[in-house]
Amino acid sequence: MCKHVLNAQVSIRAPCCQQWFDCAECHAEKETHKLAKTTEMAFMCKKCKKAFRKDMTAYEESDEFCPHCDNRYVIDAKTPHAVVGVEGEDARIDSRMLKDDRVKSKNNQSVFTMDPDEEAALLDF
């Protein structure tokens, strides 16, 4: 499973070392050499597990589908990104650094603030 492209539909075969990778970044992490450029790419569909080749010089819109199962493998890639950033100690011990913006409190009261009517009632003895 690729950590760079979350919804990768095919694996590519590197023409330089003849190994299968999910993306070019995966090749760069595992190998010491650069990915060689080629005009004919070898793909492996992750849905039907069958390999196929595509000529990249004459690439058309109909070439975006697996020839065996019609799985569309050219899609908008979803790259992972951090959702919550936390700096500090363990949030289970000290949760003061966490703030949830989904629910906003309507009135911020403390034991030191009173309603003006309550304050007037206390002062009028």
From TrEMBL:
Signal peptide: none annotated. The keyword Zinc-finger applies. Keywords: Metal-binding, Zinc, Zinc-finger. One of its GO terms (cellular component) is mitochondrial intermembrane space. The keyword Protein biosynthesis does not apply. Pfam families: zf-CHY. InterPro entries: Mito_Tim_assembly_helper, Znf_CHY, Znf_CHY_sf. Residues 1-71 form the CHY-type domain. SUPFAM superfamilies: CHY zinc finger-like. GO terms for biological process: protein import into mitochondrial intermembrane space. One of its GO terms (molecular function) is zinc ion binding. This is CHY-type domain-containing protein. It comes from Rhodocollybia butyracea.
